[in-house]
Amino acid sequence: MNTIQMVDLKSQYLKIKSEIDHALIQCVESTNYINGPEVKHFQESLEKYLNVKHVIPCANGTDALQIALMALGLELGDEIIVPAFTYVATAEAIAILGYIPVMVDVDSKTFNIDPAEIEKAITSKTKAIVPVHLYGQSADMDLIMNIANNHGLFVIEDNAQALGAEYKSTDGKLHKTGTIGHLGCNSFFPTKNLGCFGDGGAISTNDDNLAEKCRIIASHGQKKKYYHSVIGCNSRLDTLQAAILNVKIKYLDSYIKSRQNAARIYSEGLKGLKWLSIPLETPYAIHSFNQFTLIVKENLRDHLRQYLSENHIPTIVYYPLPLYKQEAFAGFVGDKMEMPITEYLCKSVLSIPMHTELTQEIQEYIIDIIKKFKQRPS
């Protein structure tokens, strides 16, 4: 059995090596290194895939969040509600612009922002909500959009971990995550469902006005070259990365199916362990499984992690510390802030290997080792 990896990017590349290499060589030979035709091609391909009117490519997922926020025209000190259990970029993009990230607790089973907690956190300064589709599963967007509409708030979906995931609304329609709110923010970091060979990102929206603002902001605030109407930034999707993404987007659905199949094998193999919870799949969400994250009960997480490491199985904790306990956000939160579910998850979650190239042999080994955990000599 080969070395077990959290994400096997090399094997994925080798399966499409000839296509990737050809795309890269064509790009290099063209010398169109900035805003080459590959970028426009990818934009159109992603628009078609998401069934959305506008995609604005940019340099990375964090830039996507920042540009989307800048397009809203908010004022310094405005409040934006975010989950306390997420990657730092969600709140970081808010804070860097002079807005206030207001952190709320999450649902214990889905790990996503709790709509009831959103409602309680709204004040006269609240201007937006940033739900995160954590680990590849959609937040409950019908409830979130209802709250936003009732209070006149913007919704920016942090879709960095969930490109290709779907949400089933109450009318029965399926929507790709990242297309339901006013703006969606996507990342093409190498380990994502659709990953490039470096950094990359994109904003998605059906709003013509917001799309135009995002395009201008991402290009130094200019609509016409050398004429700058607003303060913007320099955030471009690299042409070489776009060339890679143009190849890989053709395989995105098959990549997600591979992840979903691997998740089924894990779930079936690990069910019935009382000290372990497997990811919950809700009736309204089609999970894309960017990660497969367990809840390890009985304060056993760190012991299990060490045991798995001893058996050559890598793991990652997404995330070990609530946002409100991060030193960087000390100026935004009170000393006594407590969110019991977030704190419990930070002590209990453990992600095990999940990627498109997982073999049944590797999964059976991982399952067998986990099952033997509590049988080991103490």
Describe the protein in words:
- This protein is α/β, with parallel strands linked by helices and 378 residues long.
- The protein folds into two domains: 9-104 and 112-250, Type I PLP-dependent aspartate aminotransferase-like (Major domain) (Aspartate Aminotransferase, domain 2), CATH 3.40.640; 252-375, Aspartate Aminotransferase, domain 1 (Alpha-Beta Complex).
- 38% of the residues lie in helices and 15% in strands.
- It is built from 13 helices and 15 strands.
- The strands form four sheets. Strands 1-9-8-5-4-2-3 form a seven-stranded mixed sheet, sandwiched between helices. A three-stranded antiparallel sheet has the order 7-6-13, with no helix packed on it.
- The longest helix has 19 residues, at 252-270.
In terms of topology, how is this protein built?
Blueprint: H1 9-15, H2 17-30, H3 37-50, E1 54-58, H4 61-70, E2 79-83, H5 89-96, E3 100-104, H6 115-121, E4 126-129, H7 141-151, E5 154-158, E6 166-168, E7 174-176, E8 183-187, E9 201-205, H8 208-218, E10 222-224, E11 227-228, H9 239-248, H10 252-270, E12 276-277, E13 285-286, E14 292-296, H11 301-310, H12 340-348, E15 349-352, H13 360-371
Parallel strand pairs: 2-3, 2-4, 4-5, 5-8
Antiparallel strand pairs: 1-9, 6-7, 6-13, 8-9, 10-11, 12-14, 14-15
Helix pairs in contact: 2-9, 3-9, 4-5, 10-13
